[in-house]
Amino acid sequence: MKGVIEFAHELLKEILLEGDLAVDGTLGNGHDTLFLAKAVSPSGKVYGFDIQETAIKRTRERLDATGKSDDSVTLIHASHHRLSDYVPPHGIKAAIFNLGYLPRGNKKIVTKHETTIAALTALQPRMEIRGRIAVVVYPGHPEGKDEADVLIPYFKNIDQTKWDVTKYEMLNQVNDPPFLIVMEKRQGS
């Protein structure tokens, strides 16, 4: 069975083509950014966001090591809620948000539901029809649980005539394992 990140990548890979536009809302260590860059290169574009310089540095190093550090990837040292300042007003095919804290980083710096919801709200009108947004949520730490408790009602209230929203989770795991929410923009929305 696939883990949530592997499954998120699989669902995004189904729709991504060379030349597409994509967003990584939380750079972390650069794994998602690299995945997106490989999927849309050489003519596509990835916009990656993080508030931590460490995440920018680690992502740049990962991209450099794999030959994907070129004009097709823009790393932005800003919160994902400011994405409307940086990404085009339309044409985004895929986005991923891997919430929580930076692995091997300061665990006191975590994503917050306010900025996550602001980013998702700003991203929705920019998405192409059949475009997908994958959000990996980590309720296994107190701040992550608080974020999950607000995000679930947010996702449940997204207009069903415009978006399909799905939750993928392991039901028999202890310690509140991460889960995946995937949104797909519907035809005619």
TrEMBL record:
Pfam families recorded: rRNA_methylase
Keywords: Methyltransferase, Transferase
Record-linked InterPro entries: MnmM_MeTrfase (IPR010719), SAM-dependent_MTases_sf (IPR029063)
One of the GO BP terms on file: methylation
An example Gene Ontology molecular-function term: methyltransferase activity
UniProt name for this protein: Putative rRNA methylase
